[in-house]
């Protein structure tokens, strides 16, 4: 998977959302701003529905919130580095500061799983994580993740 095909620089940000709900809203707003055919509310509802099934906080300060949408044909990614870690009900009970959100077409289940797996693998690389956490702006954050 070529990450730059699903992650736009405009969907990469450093922020201080403060809570799980606020970061899911931020993800929804970033995606909707870049993809005008999408509704911020529909994105948010998709992410919340998935979180109700179990937290997407995978541990080590990382979360991979994701949702399925009927009105897209290609996956869309959003990367957020939280300046202050937030409670996210992660499996290790630790707060989260790196979120890689993924929105996928509802009918592409296998691609969805493959993309999630690739991202989890990339984010489990200690060197990549260290670099992401050192970044101070969106451009630098984007360059580290696609590198």
UniProtKB/TrEMBL annotation:
One Gene Ontology term of the molecular function aspect: kinase activity
PROSITE patterns: PTS_EIIA_TYPE_2, PTS_EIIA_TYPE_2_HIS
Keywords: Cytoplasm, Kinase, Transferase
One GO BP: phosphoenolpyruvate-dependent sugar phosphotransferase system
InterPro entries: PTrfase/Anion_transptr, PTS_EIIA_type-2_dom, PTS_Nitro_regul, PTS_SugarTrans_NitroReg
Compartments, record wording: Cytoplasm
Residues in PTS EIIA type-2 domain copies: 1-147
Task performed by this protein: Seems to have a role in regulating nitrogen assimilation.
NCBIfam families (UniProt xref): nitro_reg_IIA
Protein's name in the database: Nitrogen regulatory protein
Record organism: Shewanella oneidensis (strain ATCC 700550 / JCM 31522 / CIP 106686 / LMG 19005 / NCIMB 14063 / MR-1)
Lineage: Bacteria, Pseudomonadati, Pseudomonadota, Gammaproteobacteria, Alteromonadales
């Amino acid at each position: 998977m070529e990450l730059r095909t699903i992650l736009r620089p405009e969907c990469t940000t450093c922020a201080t959302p403060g809570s799980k709900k606020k970061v899911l809203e931020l993800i929804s707003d970033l995606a909707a701003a870049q993809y005008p055919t999408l509704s911020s509310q529909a994105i948010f509802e998709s992410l919340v529905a998935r979180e109700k099934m179990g937290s997407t906080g995978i541990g080590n300060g990382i979360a991979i919130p994701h949702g399925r949408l009927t009105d897209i044909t290609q996956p869309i990614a959003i990367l957020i580095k939280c300046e202050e870690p937030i409670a996210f009900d992660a499996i290790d009970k630790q707060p989260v500061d790196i979120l890689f959100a993924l929105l996928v077409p509802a009918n592409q289940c296998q691609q969805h799983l493959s993309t999630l797996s690739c991202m989890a693998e990339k984010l489990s690389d200690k060197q990549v994580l260290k670099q992401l956490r050192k970044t101070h702006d969106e451009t630098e954050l984007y360059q580290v993740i696609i590198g």
